[in-house]
Amino acid sequence: MITVSTKLVALLGNPLAQSLSTLMQNAAFHSCGLDYEYFPIETTEQSLSTIVSAIRCMNFVGFGVTKPDKIAVISLLDELDEFAQKMGAVNTVVVDKHGRLKGYNTDGIGFLHSLNEHYAKPLSESIFVCLGAGGAARAICSSLAYQGASKIIISSLFDWESEQLVQDINTRFSPVATMIPWDQQAKLQREAEPADLILNATGVGMGAHVGESPVDKAIFHPGMTAFDAAYNPSVTRFLADAEECGCTTFNGLGMLLYQGTAQFELWTGQPAPVDLMRQTLEQSIGSKA
To answer: Which terminus has fewer CB within 10 Å in the chain: N or C?
Structure first.
């Protein structure tokens, strides 16, 4: 029950019907005995500024941000942490007692935490191939560069998007990124030969593209690790192909979980109930499948 004492947290973006964040965060708040309530607010390009201004005036401790607002929201905030500023995207905002808004990005934190559970080689000795250059790819590649990755090869359906991400990584973090045009798949396979980890952040393999993979399975070889940012289905065609070729694989559930636990801790100042949040996600994915 929401009362005048309830601390509010919202998720801003559009569309939000398929988001699992509300279920995960509310389960965590309630299990910790916190009088917090998390709920979705769908935005438009015209309404985002008004909504953020209104949040300053109400009993909010923060809000999450998802597509398509992760960049647009920055101009509406008072402060950014170092990583969010370099990356140029925000997915988490904390509201202090004076109504000031500070932006963070926990997507990269979520990926790195999940990566550590599945991959042991030092990042400074690792070569990464990232398929896609949108929001998820930006968070992942920026985090890898920030943490000292040796080399990151980026290829996306939209070459301009790959070029922009490469430029941003090389100027804001470290000069470790290169791009390969999407229509040069043979070159991509050659360049990927020594890669340690291949990442699918294209969205191909889920939704209307279930059963599809963005690349030919010839790109994989034994000893590689393959990651798909998708988590529903839990095994995409991309991951199934990688497994057949002798790769270690993992999906995006861990990234979703750990970006959410980082958000919880920013909003509450308390340790997140990780196991409960994981269980909630797993149960929710089953109900939405």
So the answer is: N
In a domain, 31, yes or no: yes
Q: Say if residue 112 is in the same domain as residue 223.
A: yes
Task: Report the catalytic residues.
Answer: 70
Give the amino acid at 105: N
Mean pLDDT by 10 residues, the chain (289 residues): 95 92 97 98 97 96 94 96 93 95 96 97 97 93 97 97 97 97 97 97 89 96 96 94 97 96 98 97 73
Amino acid at 279: Q
| CATH code for the domain of 146 | 3.40.50.720
Q: What is the pTM of this model?
A: 0.92
Same domain flag for 136 and 216: yes
Query: Strand order in 101-104's β-sheet?
Result: 36-42, 7-13, 60-65, 92-95, 101-104, 79-80
Beta strand pairing call for 177-179 and 36-42: unpaired
Do residue 82 and residue 125 come from a single domain?
A: no
